[in-house]
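Work Package 3 committed the consortium to producing structural models of liganded targets before the mid-term review. Because experimental data for this complex are still outstanding, the team generated a predictive model from sequence and the ligand definition alone, so that downstream docking and mutagenesis planning could proceed in parallel. The input record is reproduced below exactly as it was submitted to the modelling pipeline, together with the SMILES string for nicotinamide-adenine-dinucleotide.
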Amino acid sequence: MAKSKNTRKMEAAGAGIHSKFKSPDVRIGLVGLGYVGLPLALLFARRGLRTTGFDIDAAKVEKLERGETYIRHIPASEIQAQLKAKRFRASADFSGLKEMDAVIICVPTPLDEHREPDLSYIRNTVEAIATSLHAGQLVVLESTTYPGTTEDLVLPILAHSGLHCSVQPYEVVNNEVAVSGEDGNFLLAFSPEREDPGNKQFKTHQIPKVLGGVNAASAWAAQALYAQVFDRTMVLSSSRAAEMTKLLENIYRCVNIALVNELKLVCMRMGIDIWEVIEAAKTKPFGFTPFYPGPGLGGHCIPIDPFYLTWKAREYDVPTRFIELAGEINSAMPEHVIDALGEALNQRKQCLREVRVLVLGVAYKKDIDDLRESPSLRIMKLLQARGAHVDYNDPYFPRLHKMRHYDFKLASVDLTPASLASYDAVVISTPHSSYDFNEIVRCSRLVVDTRNATNEVKEDREKIVKC
Ligand SMILES: NC(=O)c1ccc[n+]([C@@H]2O[C@H](COP(=O)([O-])OP(=O)(O)OC[C@H]3O[C@@H](n4cnc5c(N)ncnc54)[C@H](O)[C@@H]3O)[C@@H](O)[C@H]2O)c1
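The resulting structure, written out as tokens with the ligand in place, is given here.
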């Protein structure tokens, strides 16, 4: 497509200042090699950009350097290919950050014990970057956070280096930023990570890359860099808008899931199958996006990120009632599963105390090896608290190690007809594709299905309780 006069003028201005970000010779440092950082590092490497991944977890770094993987859906062969091509390496030595032209931050942003943002990972990472920051270096934060983090937290820490970068409003016209001069001697931007682990439909590079700079030069440089590897970039007029975009996406999911969870409870009382209703509603070709009920929210994002905004909104005296309500409804779902199981046992003249229950799936969603915030864990804890004997099966988790809130000391039990039959009830919490639900229903005495996983099971339906 022919470039407009405007584009050429702006490119000339930008290229004059930071043309290296358009070049495949740019050196990328990616800090935090987790579910988000590792795939992104490999994407840059695949596209021919020399990428170094930094992580404080020496065990992860050593594995990567040996060409091994620790994330199930990222094949070791891909890591090995990039190591061999010398486009990717991993390091725990943060002094190497000074050799990078761009440093991208993908570290965790959890909530603390008071359910307030825990920014210690970002803070520690940025302090490490500040010690080796150099003029012309671009720093991009990707971790999900509240609007203002890049400008108000990251920028002042980087400025301790003695270098500067000023927050300056800029305009975006036709997805382009005009750069008229320097706004400092380092560059700073935010670009939300939109990874969906296990999603086979969209590859990382196909998901449009939203970004915003603290000034025009930063936005220009970040867009030039990401345009080298993503099919589409979208530049916003500030880092705050980019931070808020990610929160909108996650809050939208959180609130809509809460809505269907609440409607599920109403439908159950009315003897209506919510799943059938959603299938019907989604035939409408416009104005409806399906969301599905379940045993509660899980993962690093949806149960956590909305509360980053709630926390920040307090500063502006604006209550975030939708978020609070959605949190209340979603976090009550594991209790609802326990109630449904208790009621089904009651019908069979049994009670939760001392029954044997098998929970299927501890990952927070199907076919992935991530159990952070998984509602299955809460269900197991609640069952134990009521005196039930609990076991689990999950092909992705042969054993459950100690976690921040849980220490089950359990190993995944084998799924055989005999083992299924030995439990008073089986709870389907995460419907991994490897599960044979016909077989599970056939061999079990009672099946509590939180995911509509048994919808197509034809035999023994009287054993199934949907909840
Ligand atoms: N997992 C997802 O599906 C997902 C999707 C979109 C956005 N996000 C966001 O991306 C960010 C990262 O999430 P994740 O799931 O990749 O987390 P993760 O826990 O899988 O990975 C984080 C990595 O950062 C490393 N780390 C921690 N502190 C560090 C430090 N000071 N220096 C260097 N490395 C450090 C950890 O060792 C770990 O390897 C979070 O803000 C999250 O909300 C995650």
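Reviewers should note the following from the model. The first strand starts at residue 28 and ends at 31. These observations will guide the Year 2 experiments.
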